[in-house]
TrEMBL record:
One of its GO terms (molecular function) is ATP binding. It comes from the Archaea. Its EC number is 7.5.2.13. This is ABC-type D-xylose/L-arabinose transporter. It comes from Halomarina salina.
Length: 372
């Protein structure tokens, strides 16, 4: 089963007029892909998911399953499994009754209902809890029961709307693995909504980054991290977030020369999306792609370390500079000590091969990777 979303648009009437929640978005999800919609709150990702599930009717555009138009098909006839942030187990029902409830409302016979609920519970490793009530379960167990209730219908498409957002960090990681395990077992399309880019990066085959109702970019996690199409994607994907400093471009011979924060880099003009000479740009470099030096360097930014955060085998340094706050991931010294100390004066030195250049007005990626 593949899913095709074609020029999907969803408008809502509001007191001020019309609000466009989803603005003519299109994408396709392969038959066994884990596809994530990620973006800030209010960007349209949940509305898009609800249109796929039939809980919202698009203003225009279509949703197709294996090429068949299901835009006007009611949700109960789409054979989709849905799981939301509020898992909403019925407190007066046993675990088995909760899991089997979707089968009950479809009038599945008692024997089959019991067998399928038991099988779904065993997949989620809650088979021993079938006669317990939700109030007797831990948060992780309730989440597994909710997943079992979703898979009991043997859906052709899974839709999940921020199902892990209310869990603590440790439990998130565990349930994330459970969701991935289910996907690998069932090999059907999973459409997952989250605002957590780390969650999206760790789970997905493909990611659609949304902003203001539009899709900024669709790609694999590595595509989005290494080759963002614009400043928004570069800033949203990656943790810690990318460093950005203002600058301008000038041209000579076959090179585009960039000056930013006292640094000068040249880029191959043949790979450059042109701006006019003197145009404002933003130079981006990820915290993982810089070094900190104690001595003055060429093409580096002077600053003072304000915060050091241990991350295990690396430390995250926050550096205050004349061009704003910069971040650098640096090796940890080990034995509980830091290579640097808070208050140290340092020079933040970007790796020229890993630079990104964005148009300051449009945010469009102009080029990446300086030649000198």
């Amino acid at each position: 089963m593949s899913v095709q979303v074609e020029t999907l648009r969803k408008e809502f009437d509001v007191p001020e007029g019309v609000e466009v929640a989803v603005n003519d978005v299109s994408f396709e999800i392969g038959g066994d892909e884990f596809f994530t919609l990620v973006g800030p709150s209010g960007c349209g990702k949940t509305t898009t998911l609800r249109c796929i599930g039939g809980l919202e009717t698009p203003t225009s555009g279509s949703v197709k399953f294996d090429g068949q138009n299901v835009t006007d098909v009611p949700p109960e006839k789409r054979e989709v499994g849905m799981m939301f942030q509020n898992i909403a187990l019925y407190p007066h029902m046993t675990v088995e009754e909760n899991i089997a409830y979707p089968l009950k409302i479809r009038h599945v016979g008692d024997d089959e209902k019991h067998q399928r609920a038991k099988e779904a519970a065993e997949v989620m490793e809650v088979g021993e809890l079938l006669q317990k009530y939700p109030g007797e379960l831990s948060g992780g167990q309730r989440q597994r029961v909710a997943l079992a209730r979703t898979i009991v219908m043997d859906p052709t498409v899974f839709l999940m709307d921020e199902p892990l957002s209310d869990l603590d960090a440790k439990l998130k990681v565990r349930i994330r693995k459970e969701v991935q395990r289910i996907h690998k077992r069932l090999r059907v399309p999973f459409v997952y909504v989250t605002h957590d880019q780390e969650e999206a990066m760790s789970m997905s085959d493909k990611i659609a980054v949304m902003n203001n109702g539009d899709i900024e970019q669709v790609g694999t996690p590595k595509d989005l991290y290494n080759s963002p199409t614009n400043e928004f994607v570069a800033s949203f994907i990656g943790n810690p977030t990318i460093n950005l400093v203002d600058g301008e471009t000038n041209y000579d011979d076959n090179n585009a020369n960039v000056t930013a924060a006292g640094m000068e880099f040249s880029f191959d003009e043949s790979t450059f999306h042109h701006t006019s000479s003197g145009s404002a740009i933003r130079l981006g470099f990820r915290p993982e792609h810089v070094s900190l030096e104690r001595e003055q360097q060429t093409n580096a930014i002077e600053g003072t370390i304000s915060i050091l955060e241990p991350l295990g085998n690396t430390d995250l340094a926050t550096v205050d500079s004349d061009v704003g706050e910069l971040r650098a991931v640096i090796p940890a010294e080990g034995e509980g000590g830091f290579v640097f100390d808070e208050g140290d004066t340092v020079w933040v030195t970007p790796n020229p091969d890993r630079l990104y250049l964005f148009d300051a007005d449009t945010g469009e990626l102009l080029t990446r990777g300086a030649i000198s």
